[in-house]
Amino acid sequence: MPTVTFLNDLGPDGVPKSIDVPAGTSILDAAKRSHAQVGYACGGVCACSTCHVYVRSGLSSLSAQKDREEDILDKAFDVRASSRLGCQAKLGSAPVEVEISRESRRAYFDEHPESRT
């Protein structure tokens, strides 16, 4: 099973949140399972850019980017070569490390106000 690590979302122990999930799982589903701070205002149906992440390692092992994802990423802030939408990026067999975008974290806290510290 591949591991997803959310580099800029630290757990209570000060270590980045990480989770093992089956191949084919989306980064967004992995985030939900690990309670990582990835937003998903549209519910994960590729209708917004709130699950925008930067893939720091393992980019080549993810599912290919489709036209719809590219179109939605055009609406995101600070898009980089390593940008993916968590709802569309499905894991292969390799571990993946991601950084949650600022816009995604903001959306997460808007969606989960009880999580604000």
Characterize the structure shown.
The protein is of the alpha+beta class and 117 residues long. The chain is 21% helix and 23% strand. The chain has 3 helices and 5 strands, in the order E-E-H-E-H-E-E-H. It has helices spanning 27-34, 67-73, 102-111, and strands at residues 3-10, 16-20, 52-57, 83-85, 96-100. It has a 5-stranded mixed beta sheet with strand order 2-1-5-3-4. The longest helix has 10 residues, at 102-111. The model has no long low-confidence stretch (mean pLDDT 96).
Short structural description:
The protein is 21% helix and 23% strand. It has helices at 27-34, 67-73, 102-111; strands spanning 3-10, 16-20, 52-57, 83-85, 96-100.
Which key terms come to mind for this protein?
3 helices; 5 strands; alpha+beta; Ubiquitin-like (UB roll)
The CATH superfamily label reads: Beta-grasp domain
- CATH fold category name: Ubiquitin-like (UB roll)
Tally of discrete structural domains: 1
Estimated structural class = alpha+beta
Task: Give the low-confidence spans.
Answer: none
Instruction: Categorize the overall geometry.
Output: globular
